[in-house]
DUF721 domain-containing protein (Cycloclasticus zancles 78-ME), 146 residues
Amino acid sequence: MFKQPFKNNRSSLNGLQHIQQSLHQQKTLLRLVQRSITEDLAAHCLHVTASKNTVILFTDSSVWASKLLYLRQPILNALSNYFGERVRTLKVKVLSKHTAKTPLLPKSPSSHTLKCLTEANDSEQADSLTHSMNKLIKTLQKNKLS
């Protein structure tokens, strides 16, 4: 079993530091894999994770995944040299285009929802919450029309 890149010694690290350390280790592994293969294949290596004696390489297409599997031995040799122990397993997985960086757009409230908000806020009180809700409802109605 090779040295684990993500040590469970969290006593000296807070949560964010541990995440940053893990991300740095994964970037290092990715650069190592990319240097061990040709440039055209390296451009399609998106991410690398390691645990115990298994390394998972993520790519953007099944075609590139097949080509990367043909180069399994040079990749495993480079990783074994890095860890100082033999890496036994390389898995290649494909990230679908839907998984990678799909922006989420906000949904506008329906006309029924805006009507309910208006009715619920219809009071003669002049407090700051009522005033803020009225401004929000007007903004949502204006954005709904555009």
